[in-house]
């Protein structure tokens, strides 16, 4: 019994520590990304982030070595969440055609929200250029491209998508075209854009 | 005769001066944009530009106050040239459908070349973010969007393009989707992309 008890408590304790660490980390990421978007990457200091996040500087340095590392971790988390969401959407749809449609729609909505979220932030663009130079982020974006390519291959097999253009090129077309959602205001506008993109994918008679 | 002679020479002279000034300015623009793409906006100095362009620093300052001004002037000239080229392409095509097709194709080719030109330059992205914050550049891009929108309106009237989506939204779709040309290698790949984008524009039955 004592043995089992000893095994049990440390596990709970470590879970609590883990949850606490994740909470602190999330606070740091949110605080830093908001500050950087508002003031620019070069103007934000570790002290400002610690103060705004309500933690000590020493604590902050236990989590991250510098502002750049925080911003990259934040963006990696964002892209990972988007990817998870797209996979979930894919797994809820019933056939190849609907899976493709649902995932493209979800991607456009993510893009619309992302741009709207940053539209009043003067340094949003600078931030975006910086993170896209990172190889982790490039890798995550490659995964999104891969996901869409696979959906397209299935949809070509099912006869829903044209077979005269390589699926990887069609995936690149989709991702670029759907980025136009950033200029759109309503869900209806986004759905119209998705419909246009899908028309471009239809088999040629 | 003396009068005509006096009127003639100064004109020639001023033309020579003008041509010389334009030549110097072009050299400055090319030199600066190459240096900035190679080393980053913050690392390039006016002295480096003067040296590489083969002119004195004092002369350089007669043309531009700082590196930022040179980079913006360079990009403005680029976008203006692209716009001129698109207008020329438009005016050479015979009907609404072909005009649209020719201009979209030319836009894709510009984009492909532009990205290829910058692909080995580590700071190409930073440069691009910087210039796109400028309102002159934003204005020039707005003009390209306007040009495509007008072509789309004509093509809708001619029955070549769908009428269930506002032309301005379709223009935005075209510009975003054609940016995918940046990943493509050959002219044939670009033509395939243009064909896909055009399929997205076709009237819905």
UniProtKB/TrEMBL annotation, chains A, B:
Leader peptide range in chain numbering: none
Boundaries of every HTH tetR-type domain copy: 22-82
Pfam families for the chain: TetR_C_43, TetR_N
Gene Ontology molecular function terms on file: DNA-binding transcription factor activity; transcription cis-regulatory region binding
Keyword terms: DNA-binding, Transcription, Transcription regulation
UniProt DNA-binding region: 45-64
Annotated coiled-coil segments of the chain: none
PROSITE patterns found in the cross-reference section: HTH_TETR_2 (PS50977)
Record protein name field: Transcriptional regulator, TetR family
Organismal lineage: Bacteria, Bacillati, Actinomycetota, Actinomycetes, Pseudonocardiales
């Amino acid at each position: 019994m004592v043995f089992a008890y000893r095994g049990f408590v440390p596990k709970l304790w470590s879970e609590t520590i883990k949850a606490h660490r994740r909470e602190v980390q999330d606070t740091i990421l949110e605080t830093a990304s908001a500050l950087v978007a508002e003031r620019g990457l070069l103007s934000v200091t570790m002290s400002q982030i610690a103060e705004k996040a309500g933690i000590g500087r020493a604590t902050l340095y236990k989590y991250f070595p510098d502002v750049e590392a925080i911003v990259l971790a934040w963006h990696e988390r964002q892209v990972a969440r988007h990817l998870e969401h797209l996979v979930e959407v894919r797994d809820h749809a019933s056939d190849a055609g609907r899976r493709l449609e649902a995932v493209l729609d979800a991607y456009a909505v993510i893009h619309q929200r992302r741009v709207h979220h940053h539209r009043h932030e003067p340094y949003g663009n600078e931030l975006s250029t910086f993170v896209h130079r990172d190889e982790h982020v490039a890798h995550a974006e490659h995964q999104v491209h891969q996901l869409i390519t696979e959906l397209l291959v299935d949809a070509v097999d099912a006869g829903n998508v044209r077979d005269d253009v390589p699926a990887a090129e069609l995936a690149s077309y989709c991702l670029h075209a759907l980025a136009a959602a950033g200029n759109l205001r309503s869900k209806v506008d986004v759905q119209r854009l998705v419909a246009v993109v899908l028309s471009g994918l239809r088999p040629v008679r």
